Amino acid sequence: MSMNKLVVANWKMNGSRELLSALPRFAAAAGPGVQVAVCPPFPLIALAVDRGVAGIVVGAQDCHAAPCGAHTGAVSAALIAEAGARLVIVGHSERRRQCNESDALVARKAAAAVAAGLGPLICVGEEDEGEDPGTVAAQLRASLPGGAPAGIVVAYEPVWAIGSGRTPAPSRVASVHAALRAALIAALGDVAGRAVPILYGGSVDAANAAAFTREQDVDGVLVGGASLDREAFQAIIAAV
Ligand code: PEP
Questions:
Q1: What is one GO cellular-component annotation here (predicted)?
Q2: Which CATH architecture best describes the domain 5-239?
C-alpha cells in the first residue's frame, strides 16, 4: 500500500462556478504525498478541468452503466472522461437509497468507469451503527467489477455518519478497513488488493480527519458537507 493520502470532495448537488475559484487554495494546502480530488456536479466538471489547477484531480459523482444509448438525463463514463475527469464516485449511499441502486448495478457502473479509463470510487457502508464489518465487506465484494480492474478506490461511509455530525471511533474504522482490505486481496490478489486506497467518509472535519488517517489501512477521506466550505476543506487537507 502506498503511503500517499487521498482527500476527495463530494459536492453533491451543491457548489457553483464561483466555488471553483477555491481549487488553487485546496492544491496549496496539500502537503507532500497528499492528493486532492474534487467531484462537482456534472455541469462544472469541464469548467473545473479547464481551470488546469496542478495537483487537483477532477471527478464525477455518478455514471450510467451503459456506454451510450437512450437514457435521457444520464451521463456515460466515456463522456465524463472526455470532459477531463479521472475518477467517478459509484454506489454512494444517497444513490443506493434515493435511486434504488443495487450492488449489482454499482458493479456494472464501476466496470463502465474502468472501461472508459476512469477510476471508480466505490462507496460502501452499513445502515445502522454497530453492524458487523463482514456486512460491509460483503457489500464491497458484490459491488466490485469483474476482471482485474485498474484504478479502483474504495470509500467506507457508514450511512448513519453521513451528514449527521456523528462518527465511528477511529478503531472501528480501522477494523472495517481491515475487513475491506481482506476482501480486496481475496478478489484482486495480494498486490492489486493492497494497492487499492480505502478512504473513510462520514462527517469528516478538520478536527477529526487526522485521527482517521492515522489508522492502518485508512488511505484518506471522502468529504461531503465540509468540502463546500473553503476554510474547512483547506484545513482538512492540511490536517491529513
Ligand atoms: C458523503 O456524503 O460522501 C459524505 C462524506 O458526507 P458528509 O461529509 O457531509 O458526512
A1: cytosol
A2: Alpha-Beta Barrel (3.20)
List residues near ligand 1 (CB under 6 A).
Answer: 10, 157, 162-163, 201-204, 222-226
Task: Write the DSSP symbol of residue 144.
Answer: S
**Which residue, by CA, sits nearest to atom 7 of ligand 1?**
224
Give SS3 for 138.
helix
> Which grid coordinates are listed for 178?
481491515
List pLDDT tens digits, range 212-225: 999 999 999 999 99
Please name the residue that has the C-alpha cell 492515522. Answer: 214
**Phi/psi at 18 (nearest 5 deg)?**
-65, -40
Ligand 1 centroid distance, CA of 158 (Å): 10
Environment class of 68 (CB within 10 Å of its CB; exposed 0-12, middle 13-18, buried 19+) = exposed
Tell me how far apart the alpha carbons of residues 13 and 3 are, in angstroms, rounded to a whole number: 32
Largest CA distance in the chain: 46
Cell of 186: 481475496
ipTM value for the complex = 0.98
CA torsion, points 220, 221, 226, 229, in degrees to nearest 10?
30
pTM, entire model: 0.97
